Amino acid sequence: MKNITFSQATLEAMQEEMLRDESVFVMGEDIARQGGIFGQFKDLPQMVGADRVMDTPISETAIVGAAVGAALAGMRPVADMHFADFFGVCMDEVFNQMAKIRYMFGGQTKVPVVVRAPDGMAKGAAAQHSQSVESWFVHIPGIQVVAPSNPADAKGLLKSAIRSDNPVIYFENKTLFPLKGDVPEGECLTPIGKAAVCREGRDMTIISYSAQLLKCLEAAKLLADEGISAEVLDLRTLSPLDTDAILTSVVKTSRVMIVHEAVKQGGVGAEVAAIIAEEALDALDAPVARLGAPFTPVPFSPVLEDQYRVLPAQIVAAAKKLF
Amino acid sequence: MAVNVLMPKLGLTMETGVIARWNFKDGDTVKAGDAIYQVETDKLTNDVLAEADGILRIRFAAGAVVPATEVVGVIVGPSEAAPWAGAPAGAATPAAHSEASAPATPAPFSPTTVGTGRPRATPKARKLAMERGIDLTILRGSGPGGMIAVKDLEGARPPRVSPLAAKLAVDLGADLSAIRKEGRIMKADVLAVAARPVVPPVSDAGADGRCEPMSAMRRAIARNMSASWNIAPMVSYNLRADVTALAELKKNLNIERKVSYTDLLIKLVARALQAHPLLNASVEGEEIILHEAVHMGLAVALEDGLIVPVIRNAESKSLGEIADEAALLAEKARQGRLTPDEYTGGTFTLTNLGMFGMESFTPIINQPESAILGVNAIVRTAVEVDGRIVMRPLMNLSLTADHRAANGAEAAMFLALVRDLVENPWKLLL
Asked: Which residues pair with residue B64 across a beta bridge?
């Protein structure tokens, strides 16, 4: 084990995969010379060769379009979005081209693209640079969506995403980059489509992912002080969802809460809640609870931004209402 | 001065009755003699009349199954309140099961039943309660939003159930938690619940039809016949009997007094049943109850239904007694004056469609009996006797028997004996 940051973990993943497979390359805005806005590409050109880490013009359409083309030509490109908010610019390339080509050509070709998308609220980044937009992509067949919450999964999921023959959107919450955590030495692959129980519990299940998961773990500790044993499930992959893990935990605890940083309305929590209602209604001893951001853009004001977040105290309060 | 409105006890065997319909609403003014509600027992519907003037307060809503003699409502003066709190309890809520003469205890008002009358409970609590036979309506919810949660089930004891009742509940798909009883749940309780009508489906009769709700008797027939059809593996047997001798006997008897073919058949079938007790039996769970006496049910068609009055101990009654009793019961049946004691407890049923010219049919057993004999028209038929073709009056006998009780050979021997007695009625003297 080594204790490294989330950012270093993604860098290790890039380096290892690029050295392992020379068809892997990365392109994006300010990644080669600047090393990425969060330092996640720092010194990568020196490690793997400058020609495989490419700075691009400010055109997400061009970045994803080129990545899809390169993938069809046999490469395994990694495209960096800079901010997940910028997906809007290249949406046709993402959901009409990247997601559809393998299907429309009857499986004759593969589209092994990874789109890295830093998302979530940093301090005061405002409405256009703070969003969590994962549920847009969970709704699109043909794309896999992952969202690690810790350095080990950051490395393991990025490596699995690069090796996947299907397009994968890799959401990496901006606030996670500087956080440290244990990462296994040697090969580290987190399977796509597998959730993880990161805290065992008896009385209720808290389902979350990405940075919000850390708030849930804090809340679980507070709940334990009040005698409530909360299990915390990290979805890790949002599409395809690990239905078995969700249902197994719900059947075990009978109470469930889904928490995400993204807006609650139409969020991943709605899908998870619906699956539980469809498959395990009889297991529920309380209504399903969902926590997410209010239905409003992310405010710029730091005071309002704090109101917008789902903090551990709110999770604890909502959890207690399930009993 | 408040006057109680009771669930009447219509006959000795009546334990519970269903409030079929209230003719007045809670709070309506009623006059003595008004028919305030309809009570429905297994087969009959009776009106219950108001015994005083005043304001009607309803305790149990229509559909409730209430023990006989229980208070179902009260007629009060203008300033009086009902001695219980809250609105009328829903169909599933009658909690009282006091002794017949004990004063009524008000139905406990539970905040968990507000709204639909269905207790608010978590899905898991609901499922566990059903599995354990726990009545949710008597529990208080302490879960989220006052819902009944799994923790509220702890300590709630499932009802005690006799093994036979438990088996029957499974066989009939009856919900034990719907039975409110302080003592042990017995077979009769399960049968009462199993017989309760399901909510009638809302149907759209369309442009070329009309929708008529079933009468209480129609519903009783529907559920009894369906239950019989579902529970009994039935086999039908047909045999033609030459009634020459029986017709001769009847003709001679009628010089003395009126005796019908049905009366004669009751007598000789009762005799045949004594030789074949498996046809005069009841299947209960994994036991067969063999009845010593023959209580002969006689299907009587009514204008809007069917009822089966019972001639008790037909095996030991004279033909004259049978004829008198059959005539009396049939008359009472047509007038709707039969008491439950007169149409329950049969051990075998005779049903006659001969007057309509039927030559064969497959009657459905009147459970819990194990067989039913259908009597058909007498038809003059060419038959061979001693090498010659002659015309003889033949009557087809259509027996349906429950194979759980009687195998084919047993049923066939019984039917052959009936024919033998029809063709040689003098054997009744032996």
From this structure: none
End-of-domain residue from the set B194, B223, B251: B194
- Alpha-carbon gap, residue B314 to B320, rounded angstroms: 11
3-class SS shares of chain A: helix, strand, coil, % to 5: 40, 20, 40
> B417 is written with which tokens?
């004996």
B336 and B253 part of one domain: yes
Number of CB pairs < 8 Å for A and B? 31
Are residues B359 and B267 both part of a single domain?
Answer: yes
Please tell me the class of the A2-183 domain.
alpha beta
Place of tokens 């997601």: A99
Q: Is B177 inside a domain boundary?
A: yes
DSSP B183: S
Q: Are residues B166 and B315 in the same domain?
A: no
Same domain, yes or no, for B329 and B414?
yes
Global pTM reads 0.54
Q: Band of the pLDDT at B113, cuts 50, 70, 90? A: very low
In whole angstroms, give the CA distance from residue A231 to residue A314.
Answer: 17
A204-208 and A256-263 as β-strands: parallel, antiparallel, unpaired?
Answer: parallel
Tell me the chain B residues in contact with residue A254 when contact means C-beta distances shorter than 8 Å.
Answer: 124, 150
Over residues A89-108, the pLDDT tens digits come to: 999 999 999 999 999 999 99
Asked whether residue B296 is domain-assigned, the answer is: yes
CA distance B158 to chain A (A): 20
Buried-state track B204-218, b at ≥16 Cβ within 10 A, e below 16: eeeeeeeeeeeebbe
Which of B120, B124, B154 is best to mutate for the A interface (most A CBs within 10 A)? B124
Does the CB of B145 have a partner CB in chain A at under 8 Å? yes
Residues B162 and B70 in one domain: no
**Cβ of A284 and B124 within 8 Å?**
yes
Cα–Cα distance, B323 to B264 (Å, whole number) = 8
Q: Do residues B58 and B138 both lie within one domain?
A: no
Which CATH entry fits the domain spanning A196-320: 3.40.50.1220, 3.40.50.920, 1.10.150.290, 3.40.50.720? Answer: 3.40.50.920
Domain range spanning residue B93? 3-103
Q: Which residues of A touch B143 (CB under 8 A)?
A: 285-286, 323
The residues pairing with A239 across neighbouring beta strands, listed in sequence order, are A145
Ordered by start, the domain boundaries in chain A are 2-183, 196-320
Tokens describing residue B52:
């005083």
Give A58-81 pLDDT, tens digit per residue.
Answer: 999 999 999 999 999 999 999 999
What band does B178 get if pLDDT is binned at 50, 70 and 90?
A: low
